[in-house]
Design goal:
The complex is a heterodimer of chains A (about 110) and B (about 110).
Chain A lengths: L3 E2 L4 E5 L4 E7 L6 E7 L6 E7 L4 E4 L2 E6 L4 E6 L8 E9 L1 E4 L3 E6 L1
Parallel strand pairs in A: 2-11
Antiparallel strand pairs in A: 1-3, 3-8, 4-5, 4-9, 6-7, 7-8, 9-10, 9-11
Chain B lengths: L4 E3 L2 E4 L5 E6 L6 E7 L6 E7 L2 E4 L8 E4 L6 E5 L8 E8 L8 E2 L3 E5 L1
Parallel strand pairs in B: 2-11
Antiparallel strand pairs in B: 1-3, 3-8, 4-5, 4-9, 5-6, 7-8, 9-10, 9-11
Classes of the chains: A mainly beta (about 110), B mainly beta (about 110).
Amino acid sequence: DQQVKQNSPSLSVQEGRISILNCDYTNSMFDYFLWYKKYPAEGPTFLISISSIKDKNEDGRFTVFLNKSAKHLSLHIVPSQPGDSAVYFCAASAGGMRFGAGTRLTVKP
Amino acid sequence: EAGVAQSPRYKIIEKRQSVAFWCNPISGHATLYWYQQILGQGPKLLIQFQNNGVVDDSQLPKDRFSAERLKGVDSTLKIQPAKLEDSAVYLCASSSTGAGNTIYFGEGSWLTVV
């Protein structure tokens, strides 16, 4: 069930720079997209979401972009901070929610 | 507001034994989910309940996994008999409705089958 794909297992950026995490999906029925952040030994926590009727949603340092024609979404973190180091999961919903495999972000001081 | 509660946090069992996990969702959330997360992978939906009815259990290995939500509130996920490949984190989550809403996760129940 590879309906949601995160092709980069890891990403490393310098503190203060931009982090860009990418996600692709295959199911055109998905109408709601989310990003979750996960620290070790904890459950995923909700970060930001976007409805399919929008192409951008911003919340502080976090912005999610949705390109429906390309079936692609991305999460931008600006500026990146060491506390942002975690695994980020992309998720998509058409009723039930499907998750990507995650990208491990490391922000170096 | 209390979050999603899960227990036990950690469990080690031998293969062919059984195990049960319990989940209490956020108060008022009608939809409850059980996900399985194997190390290095994203969460995989096992079963989704709307109140006490099953909405989606297409990825639940029904020969060994079962789940119930009898009163439409808390839920139990059971594995019997366990296999080595069942070693994973079992995440319970809830949302106010099934579609177009954010789901909130518990801390997970970590299962190791030896």
